[in-house]
User: What shape does this take?
Amino acid sequence: QVQLAESGGGLVQSGGSLRLSCAASGSTVSLYDMAWYRQAPGKEREFVAGIRWTTGNIRYGYSAKDRFTLSRDVAETTIFLQMNSLQPEDTATYYCKAETHYYGASWGQGTQVTISS
Assistant: This one.
């Protein structure tokens, strides 16, 4: 099994920044992808950004382009999401997802991001 520990959420004003972290542990030997998703109240969970672990290729969802940057620490099996120019519509619970060939998809508990106007 893979365990995910997210951190970095909080309350910031519109225009502010936050940096989320997600550390994977456990059976990560077959890890092939990690990603961030978010879910606002009453809305479906949406893709924010992800990275193909084996190649380092990064992809972004529409909401993240030009404002969010995903990075990783390979040694720590951790991904980061630097979020700038945050707006009230970015308010959501942000979830980390890891996919391994052996165990499939694992999700973190989520970290709350709240942007005040």
Notes: The longest strand covers residues 18-26.
